[in-house]
Design a protein that fits this description.
Pantoate--beta-alanine Ligase, Chain: A,domain 2; homodimer; 281 residues; Rossmann fold; three-stranded antiparallel sheet; alpha/beta
Chain lengths: 281, 281
């Protein structure tokens, strides 16, 4: 597995592969890899001739009070996992190379970036859309892989990729969970054993609500109450039912609905969601 | 000369050329071509194996009260000029293909987009940066050519291209002028003969100020007064002396200075500028 630090080297490598007729799969990450990331890499390695994974903790998606400095950095473990999953090359640029002096350019996906996580993290999706644009321009992939745990991020990236004419196929894969239901996250490392037990209320609430929807419940109010009751012991950021594409609130379950929740548990801000598509009769 | 309407077809054509080892020069235009555009095409055809010119009147850089509908559309003449200048392919997409329903993504270059033209046209540079990103993603050029008449646009595109890691070389060529000094512009077609004569005050003022700077004048106040006096008969939007890279106002001429002016003459909003680099002693 090759490790590439320079932008120009990465672009030249990718262009050479594309010109050789190799399809390129791309898995952008901030490192601290877990089984969620591994599942994306595995899928990419299966569906593409070569796979590039990026490891870059992106400063522009963190607000000053957030955990940019504390975010786990485990580069050597990450490389081992990536290599095991069949990744061909790691792109790990330096911060100063991606954000030089006088950096001024931001990509914003309006309307999708303001709700849910965007309310407590107002610059987050702008930072994500910007860095993914930069990575797409350097890695030049045919396909890029994202995890559905970050459902709003998926909606933002889908829209941005279409709107900016990237010609890249966005592939979204299911959230990977611990055996007890906790959604895998790099931030789970922040949890004490007690907090980890408390955090289970999030997935438990979502699963209960999912059963309700499968049983025919369509009222957002009733569904949200189920999750809220289950998560009552946590410091809730939001619990919302929205359209999975537009991220606009739903009063009734319809189309492809996204039931999403976020809460602070100890030092960790955790998010989780389930998506439910109403069967067409 | 090939005319390409589809995004995917354009990208496939360009990728094929890049993979065949051909360098691609790119001249983005809104059509209504004049000798300024022709000079960009000529330079590109000389410096690159193939040249793509785009013709697309971009709606997102016009405010509702501006001249999007009136903007001259002269596609057949444009194609003839482009072919004469050695253009290999015209990319002329449909509006609905670049801006489909639910379009939501914008590229913004902060700090450079707000002064000069940005004050009276607050969404203009966002529209320009967005469409150029889209065109770059489709045309995949090695080099892109812009005219220095749009000096602030050049600064925005330079910064954006660097910031978003496009790996494209931006080449800026001198303003092309009519024999009497008027900067060439597609909007000169809006002028009556009387207005055209009045419009000469802009370039006349700039040339006088340029002579002053060459003679050693360094005070912005004095230089701006020269231009203001000459343009006194016009409906002035702005006359400013700024740093050519940061677009921040200068009190004294230093480094690479941009002296820029805009005025409404009849139905046309005209811009012009000169750039002056202080000789290092």
């Amino acid at each position: 597995m090759k490790i590439i630090r320079g932008k120009s080297e990465m672009r030249a490598w990718s262009l050479e592969r594309r010109c050789a007729g190799d399809s390129i799969g791309f898995v952008p990450t901030m490192g601290a890899l877990h089984e969620g990331h591994a599942s994306l890499m595995r899928a990419s390695a299966k569906e593409n001739r070569v796979t590039v994974a990026s490891i870059f903790v992106n400063p522009t998606q963190f607000a000053p009070h957030e955990d940019f400095n504390a975010y786990p950095r485990t580069f050597e473990d990450d490389c081992r996992i990536a290599e095991d999953m069949g990744v061909t090359a790691i792109y790990a640029p330096e911060k100063v190379s991606l954000y030089p002096d006088g950096y001024a350019t931001y990509v914003n996906v309006e309307g999708l970036s303001e709700g849910l996580c965007g309310r407590s993290r107002p610059i987050f999706f702008r930072g994500v859309a910007t860095v993914v644009t930069k990575l797409f321009n350097t890695v030049l992939p045919d396909r890029a892989y994202f995890g559905m745990k970050d459902a709003q991020q998926c909606a933002v990236i889908r829209r941005m990729t279409r709107d900016l004419d990237f010609g890249i196929e966005i592939i979204e894969l299911p959230t990977v969970r611990e055996p007890d239901g906790l959604a895998m996250s790099s931030r789970n490392r922040y949890l004490t054993p007690e907090e980890r037990a408390q955090a289970l209320a999030i997935s438990r609430g979502l699963f209960k609500a999912e059963s309700q929807m499968k049983a025919g419940e369509r009222s957002a109010e009733s569904i949200l109450k189920t999750v809220r009751d289950e998560m009552a012991g946590l410091n809730i950021d939001y619990i919302e039912l929205v359209d999975a594409d537009t991220i606009q609130p739903l009063e009734r379950v319809e189309g492809r609905a996204l039931l999403a929740a976020a809460a602070w548990v100890g030092k960790a801000r955790l998010i989780d969601n389930i998506q439910y598509e109403v069967p067409t009769s």
